Amino acid sequence: MQYEVQHFINGKFVNGGDRFEVYYPATGEVLGTAPDGGQAEVNAAVEAAKQAFEKWSRTKPSERRQILNRFADLIRKHSDELARIETLDVGRPISENSRHYLERVAANISFFADFVTMIGSESYPMENGYINYVLRQPVGVAALITPWNVPLLLETWKIGPALAFGNTVVLKPAEWTPLGAWKLAQIAQEADLPPGVFNVVHGHGPNSAGEFLTTHPDVALVSFTGETTTGQTIMRAGAATLKRYSFELGGKGANIIFEDADIARALEIAKKAAFFNQGEFCLAGSRIFVQKSIYDRFVSEFIELTKKIKVDDPMDPKTEMGALIAPEHLDRVLGFVQAAKQDGNEVLVGGEQLILPGSLSKGNYMMPTVIAAGFQDKICLDEVFGPVVTVTPFETEEEVIEWANGTRYGLSGVVQTRDVSRAHRVAAAMKVGTVWVNDFFVRDLRVPFGGMKYSGIGREGGHYSMEFYTELVNICVAI
Ligand code: NAD
């Protein structure tokens, strides 16, 4: 099937801009084309969102809830097709787009649809006979700019709260993965979302739809997930029109394994943290620190585990690791491995491109890779965003905390130990937005999600999303 992706503006599917090809990472085949939205398409979408805001922002939360829950239920209904589309977009194994994944995609909408009907507001009575109370109001048109690695999850993570709190939306999905957003627009239409409330403009970043959204005077908020350097560019672009930002940026997660950890479990967690989504994951545990007394044993078992990872056709339910997103991204990841070798780091397993037989021979496959490295080596500092993990021995708790905090990123980390006091102590000392103790990538939509340092600005999730997607008005009443 050839996909002819279109923008979704004011409730209608439209073309606009040159068309670019969309490739399937697993085979390199052309899946179809998508339109490269420009200033005209961005203007039309923002105008539609601005008009729709008038009504949507005043629609009762209970009505918004009903409409958005219909949207979420239809996502559930279409989950098999969405799972397939996500694999076509990303190259991730279909087994990782399970019902659990798609349920989370739907829950990103339904959680906030329900949440918005349950919120109250603060009041501050004054001793001199006045009372203050606080109203929360929708902000306006939200630009949602998303990356290619877990598109459906990240798109709905922004669409859900933005719409639930009464804003209207223009989504700009990543150019490498337009299919999922296109399908979401079809589902939004099926769910009868009022025209203009949810718009999708496809295209690129610089001098294209992405940039035009971030400079548009009628865009009030920008929720962006992507590379740190892109976040910096977007922040500069929006300065003239003073936008409100939420930034979820790069990561370089530490996975700290103490000698008293449950080793079998630690190995499984390390494998998942390093190689989920081909390691193209902001939360990846891409630096494994192992206490010296168990280092040799852990590393030799981890190498064996890594060798057994089934890298294959992502549509095969038995496949554990699929294809990287694009040939140029594969080259970039292989470049990091080459540079590490030149820096004297030892590749313990993998490190090479993988050519699979038959129709997969033009896919972007790579062997899962483990590299022995010191905590200050370049490979331990840069975000590789591929199936490459480093292993480093440590002796003391103090030194490993310092090493874990020794990058410019601060998104997430993992601590593995059976010592409860140490678990809490080390978790609290890590300069990251999320720490998992004895597990990885467990998400609760109520908790703050985001990063410190160069990993982002702000938090989203539960009432943290409410803070971002609402304006506050204090009303002071003389009694
Ligand atoms: P990217 O920054 O290249 O692109 C992300 C989006 O921004 C795309 O839609 C792109 O078209 C758009 N864009 C690019 N330049 C732009 C510009 N000048 N103005 C406006 N929009 C622009 O990121 P990517 O390669 O798609 O994704 C990988 C990165 O995303 C990694 O660094 C990863 O860590 C990060 N990420 C972070 C999180 C998180 O939650 N913190 C989650 C997933 C991915």
TrEMBL record:
Gene Ontology molecular functions: oxidoreductase activity, acting on the aldehyde or oxo group of donors, NAD or NADP as acceptor
Domain Aldehyde dehydrogenase: 18-472
InterPro entries tied to this protein: Ald_DH/histidinol_DH (IPR016161), Ald_DH_C (IPR016163), Ald_DH_CS_CYS (IPR016160), Ald_DH_N (IPR016162), Aldehyde_DH_dom (IPR015590)
Keyword NAD tagged: yes
Alphabetically ordered keywords of this record: NAD, Oxidoreductase
Homology family: Belongs to the aldehyde dehydrogenase family.
Protein name in the entry: 2-hydroxymuconic semialdehyde dehydrogenase
